[in-house]
Amino acid sequence: MSDPKHDVIGIGNAIVDVIARHEDSFLSANGLAKGSMQLVDEAGALELYDKIGPATEISGGSAANTIAGITSLGGTARYVGKVADDQLGAVFAHDIRASGVSYYTKSLSSGPQTARCIVVVTPDGQRTMSTFLGASALLGPEDILEDQVADASITYLEGYLWDRPEAMDAFRKAAELASRHGRKVALTLSDSFCVDRHRDSFLSLIRNGVEILFANEAELLSLYETSDFDKAVRQVRQDCQTAAVTRSEKGSVIINGDDIHSVNAVPVDEVVDTTGAGDLYAAGFLYGLARGKPLAECARIGHVAAAEIISHIGARPVATLSTLL
Question: Which of 59, 110, 210, 258 has the most crowded CB, counting CB atoms within 10 A?
């Protein structure tokens, strides 16, 4: 078996982020639940876009942010995600390739437009997201190529994509191919609302093909339907090889069988925007893991990357992350 050329291949929703800053009153006036992520149709996305005023537009999507973070750390990465053959699709492809990521997923020539996520950032750094999934939701098993999966040490799956049967089939195909070629599979639960909708199928996937699980505390508690963090830790250690659980300013807990590591967060002077914090933590952790670092060191790199991302607007690094290590 040949050595892989890429550290990680990420599979997820290819989305263009539209980020604007507003007071909490804007959320109330538009019926937006602070800190939430809601799915909207195309008409709803266009209506909200008209209201937010000046905004920053950049290619995004949870797994795409993670993959861009890996290349910023000095790693090598590939991304699989669906866009339409339209203006925003071209923006997405240009941005992610410019970050050093290998991206060659075939675009949709007809059907829904490229996905976009309208992110409202309040003064406390909290983000409230309204997402039109568009073309990104049409990723299917035909987009998962064996040679690409075989050529990466780790296959990273984004929980946000776990809605349509085609995407589930794509994930299962990717996990099976990774296992066939002796590669690791990682999954991020993405959001508590994803866990609430897909708990049983997530657990089945975790127990049958996922070596590395990423979750924040709320997602882990939701997965096991408990309010007891220690109980959730005991359960997850039975279900997967390694779990990395973030706990905001408390840092993270890494569970690997009987070994449990608590790693402190990296402090920042000011939290400007929490968008992408979990994505960049995963980037640092996966980069360290692909390079053979101890688990506690993987978590430390994750916290360094997360600290950079919450210090400014947007979910892609401004600083070259490799210089911060």
Answer: 59
Please list the residues that pair with 10 across neighbouring strands: 79, 156
- The 10s digit of each residue's pLDDT in 189-204 is 998 888 999 999 999 9
Residue 56, in any domain of the structure? no
What contacts 127, CB < 8 A, 6 or more positions away?
A: 35, 119, 120, 121, 273, 274, 275
The three-state secondary structure class of 138 is helix
Q: Is the pLDDT of residue 1 over 70?
A: no
Residue 162 falls inside a structural domain: yes
| DSSP letter (8 states) at residue 109 | S
Partnered with residue 18 across adjacent β-strands are 57, 118
How many angstroms separate the CA atoms of 47 and 30, rounded?
A: 10
Is residue 218 in some structural domain?
yes
**Does 38 reside within a domain?**
no
Q: Which two tokens stand for residue 283?
A: 């980037």
Under 8 Å CB-to-CB from 161, ≥6 apart: which residues?
A: 11, 12, 13, 63, 136, 137, 139, 167, 170, 171
Average pLDDT, the chain: 94
Q: Per-residue DSSP letters for 293-315? A: --HHHHHHHHHHHHHHHTTSSSS
**Domains identified in the chain, total number:** 1
Structural domain including 200 reads 6-12+61-110+135-324
Q: What is the CATH number of the domain that holds 285?
A: 3.40.1190.20
Q: What is the pLDDT of residues 27-38, one digit of tens each?
A: 999 999 998 888
